[in-house]
Amino acid sequence: MTDLLEVRDLTKRFGGLTAVRNLGFSVSEGESLGLIGPNGAGKTTVFNLIMSELRQDSGELFFQGREISKYPTHARVKLGIARTYQVPRPFGEMTVTENIRMGMMPDDLWQMLTKGPQHDAERDIGKDVGFSEREVAMYPGELSMGNLRKLELARTIAAEPKLLLLDEVFAGLTVGEIAQISELLVEKRKQGLTYIMVSHDLRALAPLVDRVVVMSFGAIIAEGTFKEVIADKKVREAYLGQ
Amino acid sequence: MGVLVSLRWWLVFGVGMCLLPLVVSTGTLRILVFAQFLAIFAMSWDILSGRTGYISFGHPFLIGIAGYTTAMLTYHLGVPLYFSIPAAVVATMIGSIFFFIPALRTRGTYFAVVTLAFMEVLYHLMQVVQPKLTGGTRGLSGLPTIILGAVPNYYLSFGVMFVIGVGLWLLIRTRLGTALSTIRMDEDAARSSGLNTTKLKLFAFMLSAFVAGIGGALYTHYLGSIAPRGIFDISFLFSILIAALIGGAGTIVGPIMGAYFLTLLLEFLRPYLPGPERYLIYGAITLLAYYYAPKGFHNIFGLLWQRLGALGRRE
């Protein structure tokens, strides 16, 4: 398998705090990677760096063999990287389908101006993630946390990503909602989607990932299968302080 | 279908306003000319600030560039209006790049203050730099007018306002219009949805400047004069802002409603309060309207229309 994303020696400092320290890992095409670690380990910062929402102090990022370190966020999305947020960030004044529409936008202003929305495709993506006919016309303010997470997923899926970054996609969800989203991810994976998943819900994460990278204080402390890293002494210490 | 239904309302509005000179005095038409210019400026503000959320406190800066460009070209060089007005629009669009650059780095209050500073800088520059060219504090007067008379000027200002209004209103209904509003809602999320927000903002700034340029140039020739105190004035700025906000920011129709309301309100108060105290009433009414209807008249009328529709269906 070829590397879809490669992170090399990534470092990010916020003043005196080093949030990410010489981080390096890669994800192969079709693989699913879990990125775990205690609070403040730097997982979301890594996502922000991959999406160019933050600029690294040093290190490089490669996507499909191309160096993307200087690419802005929207260019990375157009290349095929998309993310969800820990706290869902829907466009509050837009319906579910309009939110999905934003993920399907062309880069060209003229096309945005002259070509109308693809209503059927928007609805299909909405239904794909589990929205009912009634829910796709709703506004984010009317949706439950589970549905907001689904909306985040739908908007990112609409951008047709090759690599999806899922940040705490199970947070605040009921058992039923977790099962629903897990099922959707399994389905998307079968269709060839690669993803990196950050989650504190290790029970939900375990069956969905091939490999896990564990971070603590901005650095990788363990890497391997879920069973291997959970048995690792350093990981247990980082989580439990033993 | 929805667009067609609403275009019908534009048509009704257009026909109604075209027939107005048959029933109202020329004095009223002159007042309406000012309302229509204010509506053009408020729409220019709306497509930038109402849509993208980048609140401009310096729109007179753009209007001033247009006004001074066409004024200086016609006054000093005798350039014909059909050349000086497009030149003024182009100059305004180039000038808007000064607005755009801070928008790459600043947002919210900081951006608003930076734009306000632009207006102040131009106000002082126009008085002290090359006063022979700009007319200094007195400005330039005796500028050529496009057409003479209240009725032709009414039709000209209305026609321009109407075309701009329909054009912008159609634009905000496209995917491009929707994409512009994501910048106001959450610029970071817009970027992570794959939208090139820099390109979108540049478009909004250019379009806003284009409209401000047309309005500014025509307004200058309607007045026949231009002076720094008249253009780069805080109360002129507030009129634009209030018209857009009270009517309903981000809607294009709202700023038109707001402009007519504010202009007619001031004129309605004039016989009772001829002095500057009418601005107190004006301010109080604006405050109340904005306090109780923060989404503007556009929203109130929209809700009323929905209620009436629901009532009609029930019966």
Characterise the protein shown here.
The complex is a heterodimer of chains A (242) and B (315). Chain A is of the alpha/beta class and 242 residues long. Chain A has one domain (3-28, 36-228): Rossmann fold (3-Layer(aba) Sandwich). In chain A, 36% of the residues lie in helices and 26% in strands. Chain A has 10 helices and 10 strands. In chain A, α3 (96-103) packs across α5, α3 packs parallel to α6 (145-158) and α5 packs across α6 (145-158). Chain A is globular, with a radius of gyration of 18 Å. The model of chain A has no long low-confidence stretch (mean pLDDT 91). Chain B is an all-alpha fold. Chain B has one domain (34-301): Orthogonal Bundle (ABC transporter involved in vitamin B12 uptake, BtuC). Chain B has 14 helices and 2 strands; from the N terminus they run ααααααβαααβααααα. In chain B, strands 1-2 form a two-stranded antiparallel sheet. The longest helix of chain B has 27 residues, at 26-52. The two termini of chain B are 24 Å apart. The interface between A and B is medium-sized, with 33 and 24 residues.
Strand content of chain B: under 5%
Largest sheet of chain A: 6 strands, mixed
Q: Biggest sheet of chain B, strands in spatial order?
A: 1-2
Tell me the number of strands of chain B: 2
Which structural class matches the secondary elements of chain A? Answer: alpha/beta
Number of domains of chain A: 1
Oligomer description: heterodimer
Beta strand count of chain A: 10
Order of helices and strands of chain B: HHHHHHEHHHEHHHHH
Helix count of chain A? 10
Mean pLDDT figure of chain A: 91
Helix content of chain B: over 70%
**Gyration radius over CA of chain B:** 20 Å
What's the end-to-end separation of chain A, in Å? Answer: 37 Å
Question: What is the third-level CATH name, the topology of chain B?
Answer: ABC transporter involved in vitamin B12 uptake, BtuC
Structural class of chain B: mainly alpha
Could you name the CATH class of chain B?
Answer: Mainly Alpha
For the largest sheet of chain A, list the strands in their spatial order.
6-7-8-3-9-10
Could you report the average pLDDT of chain B, rounded to the nearest whole number?
A: 90
Low-confidence stretches of chain A: none
Gross geometry of chain A? globular
